[in-house]
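Long-time lurker. I teach an intro course on protein structure, and each term I like to show students one example going from raw sequence to a predicted 3D structure in token notation. This year I'd like something fresh instead of my usual example. Would anyone be willing to generate the tokens for the chain below so I can use it in lecture? Attribution to the forum is fine with me.
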Amino acid sequence: QVQVVESGGGLVQPGGSLRLSCAASGSIFSIYAMGWHRQAPGKQRELVAVITSGGRPNYADSVKGRFTISRDNAKNTVYLQMNSLKPEDTAVYSCRVTGWDPANDYWGQGTQVTVSS
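-- Reply from a regular --
Happy to contribute to a lecture. Here you go:
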């Protein structure tokens, strides 16, 4: 059994910052990638950022230059530093953990991020 738990969401004013954390625990397999997706009301879920075991990050165009993803392999933890937040960043942010074996694909329960004045 694998548990994926996010933390760090909340309410922030436009231009503010938040840091999300996601930790994987339990029967940990060899993790290939850890990433963040988000889903806003009435919209499809989209990839925000992902980082591989080698440390290579990829970002959605909408967050490039504002968000930074990082990873602590020893702790099976991934972070998302979000700066210069905009109201359109409001969404439920979910963490995804993927192994080298595609069968190992786990999601967290999600954390709400609300950007509003």
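Some talking points for your students: The radius of gyration is 14 Å. The mean pLDDT is 94.
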